[in-house]
Amino acid sequence: MSELYSLDAYRQNKGDNQSMHPVQVIAVTGGKGGVGKSNVSVNLAIALAEMGRRVVVLDADLGLANIDVLLGLTTKENISNVISGEASLRDVMVNGPGGIRIIPAASGTQAMTTLEPREHAGLIRAFDSISDQLDVLIVDTAAGIGDSVVSFVKASQEVLVVVTDEPTSITDAYALIKLLNRDHGVFRFRILANMVKTSQDGHNLFAKLTKVTDRFLDVALQYVGCVPQDDAVKRAVQRQRPVIEAYPRAKAALAFKALAKKVDSWPLPTTPRGNLEFFVENLVLSTVRG
């Protein structure tokens, strides 16, 4: 009850001045490592920023941070400093390529499930303080189906599942969808086929996944497109740059821009669920209740 009390106390202290600026919160997940989640998160963020959206990427891999490494960024502070109260989110956020901002994590960061009530409330205050500075929050989750992944996905408005045409990727994506649906009531999932040879391969991959989910689960899967296999992505990673910036005419870069246009068309929430505070409260409550 102490965790819930800390949330209620924060709401009362805040009074009626709750920020109602709608923020689109998108969890990018995949069920396993190696499917390109972080690449998708960063390049999608930059493509949205090019369209005029104010975008922040949260590195939500609290055990093995990698976005700062992916982009060659040097970070002095991270989300753990915010949780401990040593820094504000404004202090921790770093400028990334293409006008995006990044909230870095750190290897070995304290798990959400072990936070104390005051840290829960502090995290809510921290995110609420930046809610009027962004339009989209992209949450790059860790690999697997651990508690941290489930908590971040449950709290998000949109779930973008990245899948590659490998049996383990399809199996793990299905396991994640099954867990979120049966145990946590998540119904809608957006599916992105990554590193496919042709667009038809992307559709075929989606068909493989829906064949299983339609048989065993009550979910709605929506295919949002594919990102082709492209050597430019590998070269960009080696240069620690996003492909959309390093090779803007590459096939993968164009695919990310097309994906951003689709994401930009997704409806924004018009209820209190649409503000950033709701996302963090939901995140905290999911860890409290398990």
UniProtKB/TrEMBL annotation:
The keyword Cell division is assigned to this record: no
One Gene Ontology term from the biological process aspect of the record: negative regulation of cell division
GO MF assignments: ATP binding; ATP hydrolysis activity
N-terminal signal peptide: none
SUPFAM superfamilies reported for this sequence: P-loop containing nucleoside triphosphate hydrolases
Domain of life per record: Bacteria
Keyword terms: ATP-binding, Cell projection, Cilium, Flagellum, Nucleotide-binding
One of the record's GO cellular component terms: cytoplasmic side of plasma membrane
InterPro entries: FlhG (IPR033875), MinD_FleN (IPR025501), P-loop_NTPase (IPR027417), ParA/MinD_ATPase (IPR050625), YlxH/NBP35 (IPR033756)
Protein name: Flagellar number regulator FleN
Species lineage: Bacteria, Pseudomonadati, Pseudomonadota, Gammaproteobacteria, Oceanospirillales
